[in-house]
Automatic annotation (TrEMBL):
SUPFAM superfamilies: Bcl-2 inhibitors of programmed cell death. Residues 36-128 form the Bcl-2 Bcl-2 homology region 1-3 domain. It is found in: Endomembrane system. It comes from Eleutherodactylus coqui (Puerto Rican coqui). This is Bcl-2 Bcl-2 homology region 1-3 domain-containing protein. Its main location: membrane. The lineage of its organism: Eukaryota, Metazoa, Chordata, Craniata, Vertebrata. One of its GO terms (molecular function) is BH domain binding. Pfam families: Bcl-2. The chain crosses the membrane at residues 152-170. GO terms for biological process: extrinsic apoptotic signaling pathway in absence of ligand; intrinsic apoptotic signaling pathway in response to DNA damage; regulation of apoptotic process; release of cytochrome c from mitochondria. One of its GO terms (cellular component) is endomembrane system. Keywords: Apoptosis, Membrane, Transmembrane, Transmembrane helix.
Length: 171
């Protein structure tokens, strides 16, 4: 089960990261891909100054992503808001580093973190099918004003993420 979930996670995250960079994506897209893209875009657009500042980080992308993910989980546990913010952060890192393989590497880092280190939480919350259900609840759909859902996700993610990223980057 966990191997299947890890592969599903890696495919979904790699699809998102390739899309962030404007690269060709494998077809067919993973089932949750459009939902993830929509929600992540809402978060990114609503908090673009924060994510723009992350572009200036001078550190190895996979390493900082892994450290930030672990610290976010320790800081108060996971929720879908924190997961989406981590994914958007990974997208920012992928855009910054155009070298071949970066989306695959970052997708691997984040999927291993979610499936191996946070398996109980991910399974308890229904995996990526649970993510789709959570994000597509009545009232959380495309017709809704973006700022409400984005703000709710960022609040769920915790406001300490910006400080955490920079603290880890200078260590």
């Amino acid at each position: 089960m966990s191997e299947q979930l890890e592969e599903q996670s890696r495919e979904l995250l790699e699809d998102y990261l390739l899309r962030c960079r404007g690269d060709e994506r494998p077809q067919p897209a993973p089932p949750a891909a459009d939902t993830l893209w929509r929600v992540a875009q809402e978060v990114h657009l609503g908090h673009s100054a924060f994510f723009k500042s992350c572009e200036e980080l001078e550190t190895e992308p996979g390493s900082i992503l892994q450290r930030v993910a672990r610290e976010v989980a320790l800081e108060g546990g996971l929720n879908w808001g924190r997961v989406v913010v981590l994914i958007v952060f990974a997208g920012t890192l992928a855009q910054r580093r155009r070298k071949a393989g970066t989306p695959r590497e970052l997708a691997g880092v984040l999927s291993r973190f979610l499936v191996r280190e946070q398996a109980d939480w991910l399974e308890k919350n229904g995996g990526w099918e649970g993510f789709q259900k959570f994000c597509n609840k009545k009232g959380n759909h495309q017709g809704q004003e973006n700022s409400h859902f984005s703000n709710a996700l960022m609040a769920a993610a915790g406001v300490g993420l910006a400080g955490l990223v920079f603290l880890l980057a200078v260590r």
